[in-house]
Amino acid sequence: MVSVPARRKRATIHDVAVEAGVSRGTVSRVVNDEPYVSANARAAIEAAIEKVGYVPNNAARSLVMQRSQAVGFIVHEPHSLFLEDPNIGDILLGANTALSHADYQMVCLIIDSDRDTARVARYLSGGFVDGVIIVSARQNDPITRVVEKLGLPTAFVGHPPDLRDLPFVGIDNRTSARALTERLLDTGRRRVGMIAAALDRDSGADRLAGFTDALGDAFDSNLVASVPLYAYAAGVAGMRELLQRSPEIDGVFAASDAVAAGALEALRDAGRRVPEDVGVVGFDDSAWARRTQPPLSTVHQPASGLGAGAAELVLQQLRGEATPVGGLLLQTPIVWRGSA
Amino acid sequence: MVSVPARRKRATIHDVAVEAGVSRGTVSRVVNDEPYVSANARAAIEAAIEKVGYVPNNAARSLVMQRSQAVGFIVHEPHSLFLEDPNIGDILLGANTALSHADYQMVCLIIDSDRDTARVARYLSGGFVDGVIIVSARQNDPITRVVEKLGLPTAFVGHPPDLRDLPFVGIDNRTSARALTERLLDTGRRRVGMIAAALDRDSGADRLAGFTDALGDAFDSNLVASVPLYAYAAGVAGMRELLQRSPEIDGVFAASDAVAAGALEALRDAGRRVPEDVGVVGFDDSAWARRTQPPLSTVHQPASGLGAGAAELVLQQLRGEATPVGGLLLQTPIVWRGSA
DNA sequence: GTTTATTCTGTGTACGTTCACAGACTCTCA
DNA sequence: TGAGAGTCTGTGAACGTACACAGAATAAAC
């Protein structure tokens, strides 16, 4: 007669205790690396753990410890953005690496509809996570409110404009834009313009401010075209506008790589050579940057660093440490390629 | 004197019971939508839940139910792939959507080093997840072995060559390649070649097989160039080789969009016009396809469908249902753009 | 040899659920 | 009226762990 190979029950701390001839408490102390365990007992318990194949039950541990050892990673974007924004994948990876290093698990929470919002809010209230990382929060975001009400340790990647006092990690758009523009000026360009984009966002406004900083007295508002989005088509339109207004233009700072790629097309159409006639720089070091002809000089987004930084900010709070006020601003190295 | 705003304790099922004047059991029945609850009691309990802000504690529930309501999403790739492969993000999204619809949570487990392998193996053994979705498993993968040993419900996105009997979801590379090639032939091309890539992978071999199927007797091995990787540079090299061997070539099936983009460059260098002189088709419908000049005709990868399919496969096993043998092969629509 | 400190160990309780069981209350029908 | 079926409700376990506490063993000091 063949016995049914019933799903073998997992070994508990009690099984280990019996096997090693000690009590639950002592096993618990060994498992949690606490002092006051004799060498004998420790050896016996370690052997017993190995023998019965013991792995601590997380649910039981969570229940008694009142924490889950998990951190939520909330992305509040339409699905399509995951495709378009190559950074989100790297942010996720960076956060995941930092969290797992600290023995925390990362749970992906993706919000794409109002139904999702409710589900995630419920999830957060359920104590499933000890903290959250929020990517691209919206202004007056319901999730942000839930998190605030629960007092959950939080870190934002990029910060919502209405919540300057919560911990966040971002890049210093203004300083980076300034450095990039200065480098462009150093190559001998005389008439440098900018295609500014998304001025309703912090990032867009700060990049323009950095450009203005770099030009100082030489700033000429006639050399700035403003487009609504960080998009290819917007770049084409913005460049045409600049060419019309200032045909003698010889340098362009595009607010993003996609915008820069569009600018390249408009310049090509207008018969200008890049970089000979006009130098072009982008921002983001996205996939665009390496695929344009010539490849773009741009500013590298330290995406995985952003993720790791946000994770670290959450972990700090979890450990009860203070977080830096005003957020964490990351360095953004300039990548010089062929376009300027 | 100001009282310390102590972290407010979460309401338990017991609090609800007291508030509603019933017992824990009855509340549990309402929460879990079980029958045999009077209308009175139900109303009182629902009001009480609202009032005390009760949300079930997952750890306690997991402990007694012996399950976690979570599914692991395992990606076994170097970090860089997350950047390069736009599909992984969509697969993740598709899986996440399907799982959360069934009230399961998705936990991201990314393996990038041997240390990660050990960590994830330990995690899986810890009963943190009820099932797993594995993306791009390797041959003889230690994680696959752990999963098998634990008898964890599993689904692969794309299947490792050595595990044909486990549930998987993939695309029908062969049929898709055949359909694409036939369509290319239908446009009147006489000498159609292929840049085959990654023949050591299922996908690469199947795409070549589909090409061969479509050509039938007209197949000419002289018109096939084989390159090691799905990469741009490989596409350039492959196309040069084909042009040298068969200068009269007027159609090319590139094994991926990246390869096709490389082929486009090689054709441009050789002074051939696309699509007038040579028709080019790619595979994947990746970001490349829309950025080349002209944009590529290609086969669309139903990435989010793959994720959703894998999730469904795991959920089926979780419900105790049978899974389709031989895996799930998804339809791949042809996207006809300017390159052929 | 007694006291005192130090190291080690076992036990009971609590965490917040679900589930099986037993009992109470309503109906219906003979 | 009483038996039986169907509906509803409360109670006591159990899940596997951490932690506080009490107590035993050992070592050190007088």
TrEMBL record, chains A, B:
GO terms for molecular function: DNA-binding transcription factor activity; transcription cis-regulatory region binding. Residues 11-65 form the HTH lacI-type domain. The keyword Cell division does not apply. Pfam families: LacI, Peripla_BP_3. CDD domains: HTH_LacI, PBP1_LacI_sugar_binding-like. Keywords: DNA-binding, Transcription, Transcription regulation. It comes from the Bacteria. This is LacI family transcriptional regulator.
